[in-house]
Write a structure and sequence with these properties.
single chain; 117 residues; mainly alpha; Cytochrome Bc1 Complex, Chain D, domain 2; metal ion binding; electron transfer activity
Length: 117
Amino acid sequence: MSKLSSLILLAAASIAVAGCKTLPPPMPLSQLDPQQAHGHDLFQSRCAACHYDRKDGSLHGPSMLGVFKKPSLPSGAAATDERVTATIMHGRGLMPALGNTLDQQDADGILAYLHTL
């Protein structure tokens, strides 16, 4: 096998492996159930000033795109319902705690919406 053939094969394999790491797109907004839609509305009013939800990249905080589809949160902690809920309710770093202004139904709605991303 020539060096060029080997290089082409290696490049094709690299592209295939990289393609496997792409995350599936978020659920279309038109397909959200009522709890998820409520969570979307809350996200837009309470979180979107600092976090993107449907696109990658940082705003003031990390994007939430694929937050539950990745093995860990941007902090390195496990991406679990408990960890994300604790962060929403109690804050972390520069993120303010929302626990004084959200009830459990609201927190559950935001969590349900984040699972659609």
